[in-house]
Specification:
Layout (H helix, E strand, L loop, with lengths): L9 E4 L2 E5 L8 H13 L4 E7 L4 E6 L6 H14 L21
Antiparallel strand pairs: 1-2, 2-4, 3-4
Helix pairs in contact: 1-2
Length: about 100
């Protein structure tokens, strides 16, 4: 791959994280959503996790002192693979994240 491995977009602050989810297209969509949510909520220290198909991110509420971002990203990546998602099937977003819309 030219330029190396793709970078997963991640944001976190105050026990909340938003992590880009890959593979939310085609036949694997529902399996990826269920797998990511189930894998994250099974972790000690995660109180909830929901995949937003529109933004292609999972929002996670967790105990930041128990779980680091690398831990959460690793679980997301493993769940994507377990659901049969090919590596990085979503197009990169042209927007910065998180997005703030002005009125």
């Amino acid at each position: 791959m030219v330029g190396g491995e793709p970078t997963r977009r991640v944001w976190s602050q105050g026990g909340r994280a938003q992590i880009e989810v890959w593979g939310l297209t085609g036949a694997t969509h529902q399996s990826v959503v269920a797998g990511v949510q189930d894998a994250l909520t099974a972790l000690d220290g995660v109180s909830w996790a929901r995949v937003d198909g529109v933004t292609r991110r999972v929002v996670v509420r967790c105990a930041a002192e128990q779980l680091g971002i690398p831990d959460l990203v690793g679980v997301v990546a493993a769940a994507e693979r377990a659901a049969g998602s090919p590596h990085r099937v979503t197009a990169p977003s042209s927007q910065a994240f998180p997005v703030m819309l002005s009125r």
